[in-house]
Amino acid sequence: MKHTLNQMLDFVESRRVEERERILDQARVEAARLIAEAHRKARARVKEMVAQERRLREQALHGARVRAEIERRNHEMRLTQRALEQERRLLEAALLARWRDEEGRRAWLGSGVDQALTSLPGGTWEIVRPAALPLEDLAFLRARIRAGGVIEVVERSDPTLVAGIRIGCRGAWFDASLAGVLADGQGIEARLLALMRQP
């Protein structure tokens, strides 16, 4: 009986050891699976963080490039605007020099009359001229108007007019003054830009 009891105790003990080993094996397998899963998740998180960091770096780089390009264009626009202002001043000075030259002034007056003849309606013309227009130029202007077929002319001087003339008829006006020539700022700037960009 004692022998049987010992056998039974040995059997129970061996079963307990086997069961413990089986449970430990299962725990080791589960632990290995959990560790592998944790490693996989950690690698995925690291990979996502690296990708996110790369995206953020690329966005920052793109933003910096865009800002640099905007700044470059703004700088170029400021330089172009300054150059245009300088060219506009030079153009105004050249026009005033042309007005001071007798031949240039007569060409200006003749061109103003010719353009007014094609753009104004028929009737009595009103001529606004500089107060200091020389008598010879006044005679030239009157002759040019008569040659264009305009019979009735009313003249008046304007002390604020420094160069050119303004011609009106029945409420319509053709402005061949310095201010009138320079009035189309955008058109002048476009032409100046085209000239500046020529090689």
Automatic annotation (TrEMBL):
Coiled-coil regions listed: 17-87
Keyword Coiled coil included in the entry's annotation: yes
Lineage top rank: taxon: Bacteria
Protein name (database record): V-type proton ATPase subunit E
UniProt keyword list: Coiled coil
